[in-house]
Structure formats: C-alpha cells, structure tokens
Amino acid sequence: MRAKTKMIHGGITGDEQTGAVSVPVYQVSTYKQDGVGNHRGFEYSRTGNPTRHALETVIAELENGEVGFAFGSGMAAITSVMMLFDAGDHVVMTDDVYGGSYRLMTKVLNRYNLDHSFVDTSYPEKVEASITEKTKALYIETPTNPLLKITDLEKMAEIAKKHDLLLIVDNTFATPYWQQPLDFGADIVLHSATKYIGGHSDVVAGLVVVNSDELAEQLHFIQNSVGAVLGPQDSWLLMRGIKTLAIRMEAIEANTQKLVAFLQSHEKVSNIYYPGLEEHRGHEIAAKQASGHGGMISFDVGSGELAEKVLQRVKYFTLAESLGAVESLISLPAKMTHASIPADRRADLGITDGLIRVSVGIEDHEDLIEDLKQALE
Ligand SMILES: *Cc1c(COP(=O)(O)O)cnc(C)c1O
C-alpha cells in the first residue's frame, strides 16, 4: 500500500459489527470479562482502548514501524520516551530543540539526574564529540524550529549504532508523509500530533512509533504505568486528521513554495530559512531524506519593531503559537515560542528579534501573498 492509500485504508478501518466506515469512539473506561482474567483484548482504557488502538495501528503503519503509542500531548509522549532512561544516563539533543523539550530536560528531568548535552546535530562530528560513557541516546529534531536546521538521519543512525545508542527522532515538522526516520535507522520516532497530524488546531496529542518488540514492550509498560494516554475522542479526531494528511501536506507544500518565492523578491526580507531553498545549508540532506519540505518558513525583517507591526497588520495569518494547521499561523519566536530560552542562548542560535515564523496553511496563496505584502509595507 502506498502512503496516500494507507492514510485511508491502513490500520483498523471501520467497525466489523455494524459496517460503520469510521472507527467508533469507544468512550469507555472498563470492559466486561467473560471469566476471571478472561477478557476480549481490552481490560481498562489506560492499558488499552479500541479507538486509541486503531490510531496506534495506523500511525505505526505510516511510519513503517511495528507498534504505535498515543499520548495526551507531544510533551507527554516525549516525557514517556525519556522514562526509558535511568538516573545518571546522558542524552545528546539537537540544540534548537522545541522549547518544551528544552524545558523538560533542563527544569524537570535534571531533577532526576537524567543528563543532557545540547549540540548542533547538523554537524555529525560535534555529535560524536559529545558522546560520553553515560550516553544512551541521540535525540534529533529535523527540520528544527524556527531555523529549519537539517540533521542527517542516516549519519545519526551510523553514530548511534557505533556507540550502541538509541536514535530518537521528533518528526513533527516533516510528518510521516514526507519523512520516515525509522527507514534511516532510527529506533523511536515521535510526534506532537497537535500539529500536522491533527491538522485543524482542535486537538492536543502525541504519538510514538518503535520498530522493535523489545522497545514496544518497554514503552507499553511505561505508557500504562505513567498513564499519560490519549482519550478516545481525541484519538478519533487524529484518525480523521490522518485521512487528509497527504492532501493537506501537498497543498501546504505548494503554497509554501509560492510564499517563499514572494519573500525572496521582497526588499525588506533577509535570511529566509526554508530547507527547500538550494542555498539552505541543509538542502541536500533534506532532499535526500524527505520527499517534501513542509510548511514552515522563518524570515528576518531586520527589527523587532517591524516584525511586531507585520504581526499586527496581517489578516489571514493568525497570530498564534503552534503550527501545522489548515489555517496559516504567524509568530515571533523571540517573544513567543522561544521566550523561555535565555536571551544570550537565543542570540547564539540566531533567533533574532526580527525573525518571523510562518506556518503556511491551505488558503488561496494569492490572498496569503497579498496579505504579507500589505503587512510589510
Ligand atoms: C509542539 C511540539 C512539541 C510538543 O507537543 P505538544 O503537543 O504541544 O505537547 C514537541 N515537538 C515539536 C517539534 C513541537 O512542535
């Protein structure tokens, strides 16, 4: 089955008993047992729920993995994955990782002595150099937020294998439609499904896929023990989102390319960050490991003052955090998503005050271009 067909016919489709073509929302906490210890596959909905199970099955297929897991948010998914490690272990992470992941490592998991190093993983030699005896995993985001830096997944898998590390990839920005990290040797792929997979700004959720039985067993134990599971209604919403993921990503890609071309021609815009551009440092690797470049663009308008004006003047770009929805969103990383990162670290990363981040939606591209044009005037 090819990707587009998998999104419609993959996983568990519909309901055998009634012929319903959509998986029912099993809004239930417990299940009648036919005898003591003799259940029909479901006992208690933290452990397993049929609607959640259907979602977990389809995401595993989309990522070419074995087993999927659904969590109450992207952060719940990331936290649960980090529960695989012990106190004293060390994780090497992409330096411009999602702000919430940065906060989790530096303000929460540090209290449990889970150690970390932030490294520019777009340089494999820097990754190698940061590995210690205690290192247990590489945690990669590619493309990153908001500078769209690209890390070579095949290289990371090589390094991980050599040092006996788990390779974990946050695939939120690329989606399984454009990029399948497990195919390049990753062990764990995860998503904030709040973004492209849900796609309509109406659900908060996280997904994880693994491709070994051993990891699946460990993660299921953690999912059930920690209990940060996704509810049946939200699981259903994600399955609904997945059905249109391919066509949404195609539409977003087409709009993004047109918007980038417009930005390139605008005199007030400098430093456009988009991996689809040949001059982007990671372009070649992005083209090798992903079949599309996604709908995220960042660009510099030179000053925080103009950036704020643009954000106030736009009509079709909603001023909001988050990304990956049908509606275009616009934000100012330095003041919003990355405000919790100390100013000096922000400067090191290149997140200037004039940097605007756009998540391109599926509106008419001419309206989007006209809107940005008038806002930049
Ligand atoms: C949003 C996001 C997260 C966190 O997900 P939530 O669903 O908001 O908890 C993690 N990683 C990336 C790349 C994200 O964009």
From TrEMBL:
<protein>
    <submittedName>
        <fullName>Bifunctional cystathionine gamma-lyase/homocysteine desulfhydrase</fullName>
    </submittedName>
</protein>
<keyword id="KW-0456">Lyase</keyword>
<dbReference type="GO" id="GO:0030170">
    <property type="term" value="F:pyridoxal phosphate binding"/>
</dbReference>
<dbReference type="InterPro" id="IPR015421">
    <property type="entry name" value="PyrdxlP-dep_Trfase_major"/>
</dbReference>
<keyword id="KW-0663">Pyridoxal phosphate</keyword>
<dbReference type="GO" id="GO:0005737">
    <property type="term" value="C:cytoplasm"/>
</dbReference>
<dbReference type="InterPro" id="IPR015424">
    <property type="entry name" value="PyrdxlP-dep_Trfase"/>
</dbReference>
<comment type="similarity">
    <text>Belongs to the trans-sulfuration enzymes family.</text>
</comment>
<dbReference type="InterPro" id="IPR000277">
    <property type="entry name" value="Cys/Met-Metab_PyrdxlP-dep_enz"/>
</dbReference>
<dbReference type="Pfam" id="PF01053">
    <property type="entry name" value="Cys_Met_Meta_PP"/>
</dbReference>
<dbReference type="InterPro" id="IPR054542">
    <property type="entry name" value="Cys_met_metab_PP"/>
</dbReference>
<feature type="modified residue" description="N6-(pyridoxal phosphate)lysine">
    <location>
        <position position="195"/>
    </location>
</feature>
<dbReference type="GO" id="GO:0019343">
    <property type="term" value="P:cysteine biosynthetic process via cystathionine"/>
</dbReference>
<dbReference type="GO" id="GO:0003962">
    <property type="term" value="F:cystathionine gamma-synthase activity"/>
</dbReference>
<dbReference type="GO" id="GO:0004123">
    <property type="term" value="F:cystathionine gamma-lyase activity"/>
</dbReference>
<dbReference type="InterPro" id="IPR015422">
    <property type="entry name" value="PyrdxlP-dep_Trfase_small"/>
</dbReference>
<dbReference type="GO" id="GO:0019346">
    <property type="term" value="P:transsulfuration"/>
</dbReference>
